[in-house]
UniProtKB/TrEMBL annotation:
Keywords: Amino-acid biosynthesis, Cytoplasm, NADP, Oxidoreductase, Proline biosynthesis. SUPFAM superfamilies: 6-phosphogluconate dehydrogenase C-terminal domain-like, NAD(P)-binding Rossmann-fold domains. It comes from the Bacteria. Belongs to the pyrroline-5-carboxylate reductase family. NCBIfam families: proC (TIGR00112). This is Pyrroline-5-carboxylate reductase. The lineage of its organism: Bacteria, Bacillati, Actinomycetota, Actinomycetes, Micrococcales. HAMAP family: P5C_reductase (MF_01925). Pathway: Amino-acid biosynthesis; L-proline biosynthesis; L-proline from L-glutamate 5-semialdehyde: step 1/1. It comes from Labedella endophytica. NADPH binds at residue 68. One of its GO terms (biological process) is L-proline biosynthetic process. Its EC number is 1.5.1.2. The keyword ATP-binding does not apply.
Length: 283
């Protein structure tokens, strides 16, 4: 992220895990949101703590049924971060409250640009995004895809929004579901590997605490090494894998078990499911 970022007024409709992660980036001291940020939640219990954040107006639908319409009034960027099934009703609710030139960003998995553009007026632009959970700690990767009515300037604004929580990759919408199987679902794959390595360590006599330290530090260190090195992951793996050594023997077992094929099949299955979720519901 640049040393300082200036953004126009923003509304976040739904501040659950993803909406909340993005909000955490936007309230950092080096980010200036002209006009502030308005967020909405269904309950006052969830809304109350967010009102304590600098520059944030937090509204609860429980208290103000028109909160979503109030939030988008005057907002230059509107992030729709509610559950996917709630999106169509929400878009119908706010459609006539959006000013010309507003950028509406989908943060809802599986909800296409076409769905947004079919409901929203022609005078707003739509951009679809796919953040991932490491955004919560500022290490996210967000895929963004232009809509048919969005401009390069609109994309630049949205890129700046998501750069507050990590890196941004612009891709055609046709690739966004595939991106979700790698960066979106990817943290779960990593956590799954951590689980299995931890079980293996405990099985070899280490305490759960020792196993947790060994495994988490190994994954963290390997990730940092990869990020800071000019070598590829393959080159770093070969560097660790001494000929006829222990690592070579372990890698041979993984290869014999079809590790590469398993990853391909797993991500293919995730992609198939993403396309099922994005398909229009039968009428």
């Amino acid at each position: 992220m640049p040393l300082s970022t200036s953004l126009p007024r923003i509304a976040i409709l739904g501040s659950g895990s993803m909406g909340g992660a993005i909000l955490s980036g936007l309230v950092r001291p080096e980010v200036d949101v002209d006009g502030g940020i308005t967020v909405t939640n269904r309950s006052r219990e969830k809304a109350a703590p967010l009102a304590e954040l600098p520059g944030v107006t937090s509204l609860a639908l429980e208290d103000r049924p028109e909160a979503n319409r109030e939030a988008v009034d005057g907002a230059a960027v509107v992030l729709v971060a509610v559950k996917p099934a709630m999106v169509p009703d929400l878009l119908h609710e706010i459609a006539d409250a959006l000013a010309p030139g507003t950028i509406v960003v989908s943060v809802a998995a599986g909800v296409t640009v076409a769905t947004f553009e079919a409901i929203l007026p022609a005078h707003v632009s739509v951009i679809r995004s796919m953040p991932n959970t490491p955004s919560i700690v500022g290490r996210g990767l967000t895929g963004v895809s232009a809509g048919t009515r969005s401009s390069d300037e609109d994309l630049a604004v949205v890129r700046s929004v998501f750069e507050t929580v990590g890196e941004v990759l612009e891709v055609p919408e046709s690739k966004l579901d595939a991106l979700s199987t790698i960066s979106g679902s990817g943290p779960a794959y990593v956590f799954y590997l951590v689980e299995e390595f931890t079980r293996a360590a405990i099985g070899k006599g280490f305490t759960p605490e020792e196993a947790d330290l060994m495994v988490s530090q190994t994954f963290l260190g390997a990730a940092e090494l990869l990020a800071s090195s000019d070598k590829t992951a393959e080159e770093l793996r070969i560097q660790v894998t001494s000929p006829k050594g222990t690592t070579e023997r372990a890698v041979a077992v993984l290869e014999a078990a079809g590790f590469e094929r398993t990853f391909t099949e797993a991500t293919d299955a995730a992609l198939a499911r993403a396309r099922e979720l994005a398909a229009p519901a039968p009428s």
